[in-house]
Design brief:
The complex is a heterodimer of chains A (113) and B (114). Chain A is 0% helix and 56% strand. With 113 residues, chain A is mainly β. In chain A, strands 2, 4, 5, 9, 10 and 11 form a six-stranded mixed β-sheet that branches. Chain A has a five-stranded antiparallel β-sheet with strand order 1-3-8-7-6, with no helix packed on it. The relative contact order of chain A is 0.34. In chain B, strands 2, 4, 5, 6, 9, 10 and 11 form a seven-stranded mixed β-sheet that branches. The A-B interface holds A 2, 29-30, 32, 34, 39-44, 47, 49-50, 87, 89, 91, 98-106 and B 31, 35, 40-45, 48, 50, 90, 96-108.
Chain lengths: 113, 114
């Protein structure tokens, strides 16, 4: 039930764009995105709900394709502060574990000046 | 300020000893979670609790125990039965509202067995 994230790592120059994908083999109700700096707590970015719209703030946005059970996180015109590990957390659409999140293994993003 | 507090930040334990990690939240959240983080493994769920005096095993509960006597507190005990306890442990809480259960994380406890 753990979602699969890709790629495992991304290296960018400031100003470049990146896409991180999160796929599940189970039907999903929601997808959460978090960013974690080294040695710190993960910080919430956004939630996408089944049937909901694409979300975003500043230059970070995300989409949720219900047919494919896949979510994508888009980082445009990347900044140095975007560096960190990005995790997706998925909530199942049905079953006994409603509300519980399953996290992917993370995508390490490094932005160089 | 509302938040979630873990203590201690660093913890060293001798093999064969039990150790308890503290987690306190003042966000009035019903749900609390313990995750273990190892390099390249993501966040793996150890235990979670939706209400006081109730908790469920996660994916890697063996060698761990928890209690939930108060809404604000969810301590994790790493027992001597845990074969490889050295890891970064994260506590989190959420409102357990389906689809909006944004998780708030503590700063983590790094446990090292010596």
């Amino acid at each position: 039930q753990q979602p699969v994230q890709s790629p495992q790592a991304v290296i960018l120059r400031e100003g470049e764009d990146a896409v991180i994908n999160c796929s599940s083999s189970k039907a999903l109700y929601s997808v959460h995105w978090y960013r974690q700096k080294h040695g710190e707590a993960p910080v919430f970015l956004m939630i996408l709900l089944k049937g909901g719209e694409q979300k975003g703030h500043d230059k970070i946005s995300a989409s949720f394709n219900e047919k494919k059970q896949q979510s994508s996180l888009y980082l445009t015109a990347s900044q140095l502060s975007y560096s960190g590990t990005y995790f997706c957390g998925t909530e199942m659409d049905r079953g006994s574990t409603l509300g519980r999140l399953y996290f992917g293994r993370g995508t390490q993003l490094t932005v160089w000046p | 300020d509302g938040g979630i507090t873990q203590s201690p930040k660093y913890l060293f334990r001798k093999e064969g000893q039990n150790v308890t990690l503290s987690c306190e939240q003042n966000l009035n959240h019903d749900a609390m979670y313990w995750y273990r983080q190892d390099p390249g493994q993501g966040l793996r769920l150890i235990y979670y609790s939706q209400i006081v005096n109730d908790f469920q095993k996660g994916d890697i509960a063996e060698g761990y125990s928890v209690s939930r006597e108060k809404k604000e507190s969810f301590p994790l005990t790493v027992t001597s039965a845990q074969k490889n306890p050295t890891a970064f442990y994260l506590c989190a809480s959420s409102s357990w509202d389906r689809g909006t259960a944004e998780a708030f994380f503590g700063q983590g406890t790094r446990l090292t067995v010596v």
